[in-house]
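Hey all, quick one. A colleague (J.T.) asked me to put the copper (II) ion job into the tracker so the inputs and the structure tokens live in one place instead of scattered across chat threads. No bug as far as I know, just bookkeeping. Sequence used:
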Amino acid sequence: MSDARSPEDERELNTLTPPEKVWWKRLGPDERRWLTIAFVWCLILFTGMYVWMGIGDQQTPIESYRIDPDDFAAETTAFIEEHQVDEMEGVPVVAPPPGSNVYLQASQFQFRPVLQLEEGETYRLLVSSTDVQHGLSFQPVNLNFQVLPGYLYVIEITPDRPGEYPMICNEFCGLGHHVMTGMVIVAEAGAEGNAP
Ligand SMILES: [Cu+2]
């Protein structure tokens, strides 16, 4: 037996010694092929993001402005006084005319008022928070928004199906977060009971 061991043998004996210049070796053909496929796929998805924005009809038209939370609360109260038609579990129900500005206030732990809208009509939903950050999620449709104090979000909506759509807060906003709900009632087009 010879005592002369080559450097390779030494490395095999000691697994803690890194193999020499392993990262400098050229990529094998398989590895190169997969990297190319992954890169091209990334580019397709990246381009698709912009194409879908244009033709996908999935973007909710939304504008945002700065607003003082107290001003927003006052405007919401005035809006409710003008259009209230009913009350639901202590929350005012409003039936604003089609095409109008519709206020929706998020605060711990309630959305107010309950909105009674008409199918096929377009409304400008004015949403803001008077205290902390909330989330606004309409069920079961896929509409999700962040609601922050100090910011007014104007969301254009055209309800296309009659029914009752509960809203839930989807941003943890405090101890009562799990009970924070609201409601949009969409009446069939031309149905009685809507404000003129
Ligand atoms: Cu919440």
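Adding what we noticed when we looked at it: The longest strand covers residues 101-107. The mean pLDDT is 86.
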